[in-house]
Amino acid sequence: MKDNLLLTHWCMIRNNQLVIDNKIDVVTENISNFAGFLKALYKKEQLSYPKFYKMDSLSKTGFLTSEKLIKESNVLDHYRKEEIGIIIFNSSASLDTDTAYQKTIQDKSSYFPSPSVFVYTLPNILVGEICIRHKIKGENAFLVSEKFDAEMILDNVASLMESGRVQACLCGWVEVLGEKYESLLFLVENASQVFEKDNKPSLHKTFTINNLNNIYYTKGD
Amino acid sequence: MENNSVYVAGDNVITSLGFTTDETIRKIKNNNIGFKVCNDRSLTPAPIPLSLVDSYQLDELFQRTVEIFRPDNRNTRYTRMEKFFILSIFDATNELPAEIFGTKTQLIISTTKGNIDLLEEEKKVLYEPERIYLWRLAEVIRQFFNFENRPLIVSNACISGILALSIASRMIQSGRCENAVVSGGDIISEFVVSGFTSFQALSPEPCKPFDISRNGLSLGEGCGTMVLTSSTQRFSATNIRIAGSASSNDANHISGPSRTGEELAMAIQKTMHEAAFEPTEINYISAHGTATLYNDEMESKALVLAGLQNVPVNSLKGYFGHTLGGAGLIESVITMRSALDNMLFRSAGFSVLGVPENINVIQQHTPATVDTCLKIASGFGGCNAAIIFHKEKSTH
Q1: Both B271 and B372 in a single domain?
Q2: Tens of pLDDT along B277-319?
Q3: What is the residue range of B346's domain?
Q4: I want to staple A169 with a disulfide (CB 3.0 to 4.6 A). Which of A85, A110, B83, B308 is the partner?
């Protein structure tokens, strides 16, 4: 039988702010640039994960969003690690790091390609980073669309959930290019599972295009 | 919930061996290998074997195709990557009714780097700035064929192609679309060659998957396309069905495979479970087999964990290299042909087993009953994917 899918939690990083569910959790003011903001947020969240400093901006941004979402939702307490899927979309894939890497090979007099930069020229490394952090081993995919596309997110996540291959899915949008960034991750769960645990049901919304768009277009501005 | 069966209704492969699936299969049967030592300084600082598609033939075939199919576009400039995709989709859909481009079809593009060569100063100036984006590449392809729905792009390292097929079959099974045109490709660029060189991952001679003397991977370029449908009558589909698929993550390291192979084995087991096949029912495995030390080791362990150590296995990368975002599609099409032709192809470059587990690598082209095939892949970011193709007894 088809189970109803719910958006149980979401976390957004945009405009020097982190918003978790309905509340603005962190406002980081007087930050001169994006890199400074990411660092300030990492410290504010009191994370202790030295690998963070090796990540590119795309991975750092998605990582910080997922950290907050995973912590707030306690998703790891309710599902086995191979039952949790991750599907992330963006517009520019890894172009931010691609451009940085190209600079290391462009000029033959200063030719210095580095494996530690090259590895981040794949956008799905972000998904790998989140999986490594929490030993999440379920289905994963990195997909690209021009803009935040609620219908595409819904189609992909719902068909994966309906197939029964995952019981919960971390999904959404993590876009980074230069100083422009926005990140919005959702946790999607089967309604029947959610009602078995006490999980602030007042926050839950049905997993629909409208609800995805409402969160993306109205919160955190 | 709907649960439609998904069949293959069209296919194409473009590699250094040829521009069609038939041409590629003929070359494989003749044991032709597509590598040449490349001295082109615009691609590689040192000579290295690469499997490159002939540019002259590519341009000529592309011009002819545009003249026949879209003469109104004869003055439009297309990138090398776009030519691959357009030619591959053109050939795979050539005999199908035009409604394959209609509202019931999802176009899915699989690529790791797309038009990445447009970061080079000389090429950048020839195109609009958006052309570097993968969605723009997909949109150019969509417009060429007038696909009505907006395309979906999968960019998930070396499992992109299998993942794209997996997503397509899920969308057809659940009734979200009736057909999917799934095309995967990547070109060889200085960007990619320098990156793999910096990882010291490239073999100085054509790659030797699973062999004791293997010494890294060899890069190839190309494109593969599969047309999938649940409307078997309308699109006169083959009797090859996607029976199951799954992906997993090692959650171990961003650039090195799992030490145990457990997570790839998990994806394989989930796939067999979904397809309702036992390990003893699998007739053939098309492995990822990149010929790096650790990938091939890990795969051998995963196959044993999944109970598949006796099943004939090959890696097709010894023929045309690692085609990255194209690999899943290209190798799946050839896997499907193994089933249709009842033929197991030799694992090119292999002579002496050099992985920890005693797997059954195919040493000679061998006629055999090939009904059920497993295709697997793993990639950077710790990702793994598996898919099973099954040949039904009767045609539609």
Answers
A1: yes
A2: 999 999 999 999 999 999 999 999 999 999 999 999 999 999 9
A3: 240-391
A4: A85
Lookup: tokens for B175: 């009734």
Report CB contact under 8 Å: B381, A101.
Answer: no
| Subunit contact B380:A99, Cβ cutoff 8 A | no
* Residue A160 sits at the chain B interface (C-beta within 8 Å): yes
Integer Cα distance of B378 and B383 in angstroms: 5
Write down the ipTM of this complex. Answer: 0.97
Domain total of chain B: 2
Domains defined for chain A, CATH in brackets? 5-218 (3.40.47.10)
The C-alpha of B183 sits at a distance from chain A's nearest C-alpha, in angstroms, of 14
pLDDT tens digits, A99-139:
999 999 998 888 889 999 999 999 999 999 999 999 999 99
The pLDDT tens digits of the residues spanning A138-147 come to 999 999 999 9
* Amino acid identity, position B169: S
- Same domain, residue pair B63 and B30: yes
User: In this complex, do B133 and A146 lie within 8 Å of one another by their Cβ atoms?
Assistant: yes
Q: Are residues B251 and A134, on separate chains, in Cβ contact within 8 Å? A: yes
Angle between helices A57-73 and A34-44 (to 10 degrees): 30
CA distances from B298 to A146, B259, B295, B341, B382 (A): 36, 6, 5, 30, 12
Q: Is residue B243 within 8 Å of residue B8, measured between CB atoms?
A: no
Instruction: Provide, as residue numbers in chain A, all residues whose Cβ is less than 8 Å from the Cβ of B247.
Output: 139-141
The answer to the question of residue B396 being in a domain is: no
In a domain, B310, yes or no: yes
Name the one residue in this structure whose structure tokens are 């997570």.
B263
Facing residue for A143 by CB, picked from B153, B157, B252: B153
Please indicate whether, in this complex, the C-beta atoms of B155 and A124 are within 8 angstroms of each other.
Answer: yes
